[in-house]
Amino acid sequence: MRNDVKKSGYVSIIGRSNVGKSTLMNHLIGQKIAITANKPQTTRNRIQTVYTDVRGQIVYLDTPGLHKAKNRLGEFMVEEALHTIPDADVVLWIVEADPFIGRFDLEIGERLKQSGKPVILVVNKTDLVEKQTVKDAVKAYEALMTYRKIIAVSALRSVNTGKVTDAIFECLPEGPMYFDEDTVTDQPMRQIVAEMVREKALRILEEEIPHGIAVTTDSMKQRKNGLWDIEATIVCEKESHKGIIIGKGGAMLKRIGAQARMDAEKMLEDRVNLKLYVKVRENWRDSDILLKNYGYTAPGKDA
Ligand SMILES: Nc1nc2c(ncn2[C@@H]2O[C@H](COP(=O)(O)OP(=O)(O)OP(=O)(O)O)[C@@H](O)[C@H]2O)c(=O)[nH]1
Ligand SMILES: [Mg+2]
């Protein structure tokens, strides 16, 4: 390829919950933008990031995992993911290295087949299984449809992830640079901070509590000496959840805050003073107005 000919395009990252979509995207762009956790339904919004090298530019869309929606938030998330497919130049379909193909993966396969988009199948978490299991998984998925490429990776250990980038560039058309080369994401800083807090809550809290949490950044100001003052609110669904989030003598909230502050300091490259508040909004996950307040607006509708 001549050096002045650049390729570019949109790559939608699709898959069921918890298969490692966000982990993979972070590795592909070399920076942690999307939050990750060992719990389903971690990602709630489409998250756009940009990767640029001499070959051109890849715009990634990390999406919420496809699952059976149990509330309006869940419906929004599934819509948010499926909505990215028509605009994608390439779809990265992420699955786990497991020869048993479940209901959601079968559905995703059907959708992708119908879309007619070029699909790269990424078989992830190969570090957890025997080589033979990876081979069996590849065989099982090969029987479903035709792919532009199948790549077995471990996103967590960065095994073969470079091959994913190569395969994407092979599929992309020649095209313009949509963003300048320093751009990594279009996520506003406030939203990234809110997500950092939500990630810690997801990782630290047990059972269903973290799924009923939303986080908003209420204010974010930098002092002359560089220190950032940030205030954020954790919204939960029940008074009893509020008690657990705050913890004995505020211990739990302190833990969430301390971990989120470290992430925020890394991103902002300065000291951070993070104040967290907790409030209850019953059934917010089924309220259109509150969903909108917390940044979950249906695709195509007003933001
Ligand atoms: N062992 C292993 N774990 C992985 C790998 N990739 C991701 N994980 C773990 O799998 C869990 C889910 O990862 P995420 O990246 O949050 O998954 P996701 O597909 O974005 O999940 P949702 O946003 O909920 O749809 C996390 O605990 C990751 O650390 C991998 O290659 N190997
Ligand atoms: Mg995710």
In short:
The protein is of the alpha/beta class and 303 residues long. It has 9 helices and 9 strands.
Tell me what the structure shows:
The protein has helices at 21-29, 72-82, 103-115, 131-142, 161-171, 189-204, 239-246, 251-268, 288-293; strands at residues 7-15, 47-53, 56-62, 90-96, 119-124, 149-152, 214-222, 228-236, 272-280. It is α/β, with parallel strands linked by helices and 303 residues long. Helix content is 34%, strand content 22%. It folds into 2 domains: 7-171, Rossmann fold (3-Layer(aba) Sandwich); 189-293, K homology (KH) domain (GMP Synthetase, Chain A, domain 3, 2-Layer Sandwich), CATH 3.30.300.20. The longest helix is centred in the C-terminal third of the chain and has 18 residues, at 251-268. The strands form 2 sheets. Strands 2-3-1-4-5-6 form a 6-stranded mixed sheet, sandwiched between helices. Strands 7-8-9 form a 3-stranded mixed sheet. It is globular, with a radius of gyration of 20 Å. The chain binds guanosine-5'-triphosphate (GTP) and magnesium ion. The site of guanosine-5'-triphosphate (GTP) has 24 residues, from helix 1.
